[in-house]
C-alpha cells in the first residue's frame, strides 16, 4: 500500500492560483482549495434541495490549499523552500504546515466492511456482495453504489416498514428522490404493478436501475428529474424520503401526481419537525393517517381529505 502525505498552505486571497501552479510544477496533482468566498457565492444561487449548515463552515479571510501526494513522488523540502521563497519575494504571509501521513485505502468500498444483512419486518435487506440462504422472508439485494439508501438509516427503515403495512398488490408507486432505489425495489417486491422513480442525481438513477436488475425486477422505470417535472400521470402511492424544505415545495403539487384515494408517505424528517410537516400537509388538504418514529426520525402517512 502506498504511503500518502498531506500538508496545508494558508495564503492571502488572489495568490492561490499562482501557488497551485508552483505545486503542480513540483509534482503535486491532488489539491483542494478552501475559500470561504466560494460558500458565500454559492449561497446566492443555492438550489432548493441543498441545505447548508453554517456551523460546518468557519469564515476566514485567507485561502487554504490542501495538498495530497504519494511519498516517493514529491520532495517536500523542495516545496517548502519554494513556498518560503515565494512568500519573501512577494512580501506576503504564506504559511505551510508540516507533513502528515494519511492512510491510503479504497474509500469507495471501505464502508462495505460494516454493512451486514438485516431485517425490516418481513424483508431481509442483503448487500449484493454477501451470499445468504433465506426462504422465510422476502430478500431484497442492494448495492447502493454512490447513492443514498442502504436501508440502515432510520428514515429509509421507517418507509419500508410503512410500505409493508399497505396493500400494494396491483398498485402504482412513485418514488421521488429514489437514491439507491431501495424503496422502489421494496415496493415492487411487495406487489406493486409499476414503479416510477426520479432523482436529480444521475448516479442515483443508475443505482436504482442496477438494483432493479440485481433483484430481477423489470417493472421499475427510473429517470433523472427534479421532483415532479418528469411525472405525467397519477399514482396510487407516492413516496418522498427527502428534506422538509423540499417537501414544502413538493406537497402543494401532489394533486398532479397522487390519485384522489392514494397514499402519500413522506420521511427524511426529525421529530422536532413534526408540527411543521403536519401543518404543511393539512394546509394542502391532506389528513394524517399515521406517524411512525424511530430514534429522532419520523415518517408520515397521509391522504387527501374527504375521500
From TrEMBL:
SUPFAM superfamilies the UniProt entry points to: S-adenosyl-L-methionine-dependent methyltransferases (SSF53335)
Enzyme class, first EC level, given as a word: transferase
Cellular component terms per the entry's GO annotation: cytoplasm; ribosome
Pfam families assigned to the protein according to its UniProt record, in alphabetical order: PrmA
Protein name as catalogued: Ribosomal protein L11 methyltransferase
Keyword Cytoplasm applies: yes
Name of the gene this protein is made from: prmA
Catalytic activity: L-lysyl-[protein] + 3 S-adenosyl-L-methionine = N(6),N(6),N(6)-trimethyl-L-lysyl-[protein] + 3 S-adenosyl-L-homocysteine + 3 H(+)
Localization of this protein: Cytoplasm
Keyword Ribonucleoprotein on entry: yes
Record GO terms (molecular function): protein-lysine N-methyltransferase activity
Residue numbers binding S-adenosyl-L-methionine: 156, 177, 199, 241
Gene3D superfamilies: Vaccinia Virus protein VP39
Cited function: Methylates ribosomal protein L11.
Amino acid at each position: 500500500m502506498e504511503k500518502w502525505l498531506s500538508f496545508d498552505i494558508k495564503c492571502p486571497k488572489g495568490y492561490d492560483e499562482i501557488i497551485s501552479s508552483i505545486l503542480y510544477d513540483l509534482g503535486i496533482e491532488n489539491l483542494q482549495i478552501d475559500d470561504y468566498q466560494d460558500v458565500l457565492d454559492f449561497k446566492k444561487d443555492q438550489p432548493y434541495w441543498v441545505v447548508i449548515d453554517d456551523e460546518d463552515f468557519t469564515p476566514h479571510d485567507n485561502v487554504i490549499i490542501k495538498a495530497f501526494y504519494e511519498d516517493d513522488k514529491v520532495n517536500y523540502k523542495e516545496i517548502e523552500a519554494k513556498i518560503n521563497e515565494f512568500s519573501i519575494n512577494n512580501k506576503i504571509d504564506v504559511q505551510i504546515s508540516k507533513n502528515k501521513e494519511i492512510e491510503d485505502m479504497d474509500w469507495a468500498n471501505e464502508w462495505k466492511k460494516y454493512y451486514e444483512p438485516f431485517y425490516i419486518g418481513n424483508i431481509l435487506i442483503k448487500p449484493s456482495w454477501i451470499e445468504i440462504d433465506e426462504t422465510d422472508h422476502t430478500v431484497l439485494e442492494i448495492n447502493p453504489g454512490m447513492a443514498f439508501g442502504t436501508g440502515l438509516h432510520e428514515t429509509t427503515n421507517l418507509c419500508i416498514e410503512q410500505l409493508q403495512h399497505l396493500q400494494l398488490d396491483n398498485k402504482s408507486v412513485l418514488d421521488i428522490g429514489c437514491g439507491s432505489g431501495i424503496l422502489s425495489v421494496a415496493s415492487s417486491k411487495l406487489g406493486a404493478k409499476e414503479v416510477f422513480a426520479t432523482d436529480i442525481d444521475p448516479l442515483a438513477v443508475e443505482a436504482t436501475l442496477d438494483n432493479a436488475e440485481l433483484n430481477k425486477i423489470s417493472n421499475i422505470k427510473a429517470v433523472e428529474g427534479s421532483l415532479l417535472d418528469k411525472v405525467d400521470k397519477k399514482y396510487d402511492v407516492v413516496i418522498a424520503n427527502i428534506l422538509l424544505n423540499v417537501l414544502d415545495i413538493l406537497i402543494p403539487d401532489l394533486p398532479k401526481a397522487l390519485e384522489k384515494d392514494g397514499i402519500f408517505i413522506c420521511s427524511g424528517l426529525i421529530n422536532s419537525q413534526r408540527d411543521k410537516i403536519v401543518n404543511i400537509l393539512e394546509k394542502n388538504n391532506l389528513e394524517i393517517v399515521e406517524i411512525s418514529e424511530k430514534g429522532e426520525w419520523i415518517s408520515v402517512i397521509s391522504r387527501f381529505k374527504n375521500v
